[in-house]
């Protein structure tokens, strides 16, 4: 048994106030919760509504007072009474979820691309510029270098589809105006809802669905230090394992190991569970709205009578569970009215880099659904700067799959960091990470780099 | 002369102690101790540091144990004696099968309570030391 003594340190600041009476801190960064959240349990409520909140914590030796959460204070909660008062906090992306558009200066149903970006050319704007403009309106200042995109142009005046890119204000759009029963005023669309519409279509795919397949969607991610990033994620791991800045070690998690393996060095998983699932489907049908042809269009991957039945990382490259003549469709295809082309060839034929095509979206999604999906979570005592979008390695002793059945790189979907003071007055520290994997590591996927 | 010390402050283990247990793979030495002065007693109380021990893996087959605490490093040299199998003396009667081995560990005083005191500032206390290393022998084994 290797014994490691550590000093646990934490510094919580709400507004200008240093909080010293906390008894528990929980920071949750998870792509499935849209934005980061934190819960502080204190003896009395610190600060005031909307105060800046900063949580630094970690272990020495380790990352020490490393940023784990930055955001804003929200409501106190009686959930922890009588031990303390819980204080809910939201990450900076949460501000985008609370920012609803109510502006409709041109009476078109909301803000157009040109309302957001007055200097944008008639050909439209990239998702990067749109994201930055929308986040700025929500009061979130971002580093432009942290926001990635496909570079395609959206919302241009070249066809009538610009109306599909309007940030809705709850007022009738041009299309709805002719339908009298839609005249009722509704709440507008939040900045985060609007940007997630781009998350669904901002896809890249390298043209292959078998060995060497690469692709994914640009998604907004919040880093532990509160920065907002937009990186390409594919629900699959990257080739490189992320490195913890505090220890300089690759983030490799090793389960306890059954007695048969004999090797237990470096074991750092306290509890966990993993599941290897079946493919979600072998067909993805994505629909869009091609205003040029006056209606909807679609692309199906793989198309029509295609006999190819590739599956990522399966023996022989074929899906052993779903034969080509069995059409198991993805039940959650990223269809959107903001997809303007059916095929990539037609997009190229357009010649101006405008709009997204259903083919790219369908194949990028295909890589996520037609694979042996590996999902699970672990709890560790390590003080590593775990964050969504990282690639970790989860394995048994000596690098072999053991009771979890996984000895491979997995993509970190969320990190839940908890620190509380137990009855004896000692710190209880743990990190729970949630994973998604399966499929070949994709070198072209992005991640949020974490610096010490 | 006390038979043990922690951070240079002497104390005696009471008869039959220390108790020894493994908690998540970490050795805990605990039991009743006798502290022979008020200054030492105050020092012990000032240097108690609760710890949380949590482990990954099977403690009997290796793994990692984290000993977490708040504040600066509270570990100090613990010089004590523990019961070990007799390897120094020929194990024939009247020599007992077990002897005491003087050992030096690095440890944290993770719990400390005074239970009663006697005239002359002699204090009976319950102490718990969380041992962080395998320790080194500081002298020959001794018959008790």
State the end-to-end CA separation of chain B: 15 Å
Q: Can you tell me the residue ranges of chain B where pLDDT is under 50 for at least 5 consecutive residues?
A: none
Structural class of chain A: mainly beta
What's the quaternary structure here? heterodimer
Helix run count of chain B: 1
Order of helices and strands of chain B: EEEEHEEEEEE
Q: What is the percentage of strand-forming residues of chain A?
A: 25-35%
Give the fraction of residues assigned to helices of chain B.
Answer: under 10%
Biggest sheet of chain B: strands side by side, in what order?
Answer: 1-2-4-9-8-7
- Give the ordered list of helices and strands of chain A: EEEEEEEHEHEHEEHEEEEEEEEHEHEEEE
How large, in whole angstroms, is the Cα Rg of chain A?
24 Å
Supply the helix-strand structural class of chain B.
Answer: mainly beta
Proportion of residues in β-strands of chain B: over 45%
User: Can you summarize the main beta sheet of chain B?
Assistant: 6 strands, antiparallel, barrel
Question: How would you characterize this protein structure?
Answer:
The complex is a heterodimer of chains A (452) and B (144). In chain A, 12% of the residues lie in helices and 34% in strands. With 452 residues, chain A is mostly beta strands. In chain A, the strands form 6 sheets. In chain A, strands 1, 2, 3, 4, 5, 6, 7, 15, 16, 21, 22, 23 and 24 form a 13-stranded mixed beta sheet that branches. In chain A, a hairpin with a 5-residue loop joins strand 23 and strand 24 (427-437). In chain A, helix 3 packs antiparallel against helix 4. Chain B has 144 residues and is mostly beta strands. Chain B is 6% helix and 53% strand. In chain B, strands 1-2-4-9-8-7 form a 6-stranded antiparallel β-barrel. Chain B is flat. The interface between A and B is medium-sized, with 33 and 29 residues.
